[in-house]
């Protein structure tokens, strides 16, 4: 598995955005596409990456005006993100993700043109599919259903909106309660079920 080519698990033709686009457009793309990372491409070349976490930073920094309505992608993106080449393996991806504080790696060719993206979820999924079951055979892990992924995304969007309201309210008691409820909803969904 560790020598498996990265093109076996990467998402080809990922959703992307330009550096001159507004941060609000980037946020809308993340939400509508149910993704957490947007490669930033200019003239066909990768120049950065924006993640859903970048928007939380905006709201924490600004309590009066939503910076995301004023900012451009180039102002909030991570410049020169860590990347993988098309010759990379799953091991290369795992080592880079383990060593950094990020969860996505754009895949580029020799000219730095974007050809795909690999996330930590992609790697975990590949690992699960390669683990042996009790009798030593390999059992394909079930794929996440689209409805489960959409529900997870919906809950995370609620957390982001509640966090935004909480910060804007000057840390109001009601907004704090709403944020705690949203976080509890996510926690309950991710807790293992006792059998």
In short:
This protein has about 200 residues and is α+β, with helices and mostly antiparallel strands. Helix content is about 45%, strand content about 15%. The model has no long low-confidence stretch (mean pLDDT about 80).
Provide a descriptive summary of the structure in words:
This protein has helices spanning 23-33, 52-61, 67-70, 73-76, 90-99, 120-130, 146-168, 173-190, and strands at 11-12, 37-42, 45-51, 78-79, 84-85, 104-108, 114-119. It is of the alpha+beta class and 195 residues long. It folds into two domains: 6-143, Roll (CBS-domain); 144-195. The protein has a four-stranded mixed sheet. Strands 2-3-4 form a three-stranded antiparallel sheet. The protein starts with 10 loop residues before the first strand and ends in a 5-residue tail after the last helix. The model has no long low-confidence stretch (mean pLDDT 79).
Q: Quick one: biggest sheet?
A: 4 strands, mixed
Number of domains: 2
CATH topology name of the largest domain: CBS-domain
DSSP E strands, number? 7
Q: State mean pLDDT (0 to 100 scale).
A: 79
Shape: flat
Do you know the CATH architecture of the largest domain? Answer: Roll
Task: List the secondary-structure elements in sequence, H or E.
Answer: EHEEHHHEEHEEHHH
Distance between the terminal alpha carbons, to the nearest Å? 31 Å
What is the spatial order of strands in the main beta sheet? 1-7-6-5
Class from secondary-structure proportions: alpha+beta
Could you estimate the helical fraction of the residues in percent? 40-55%
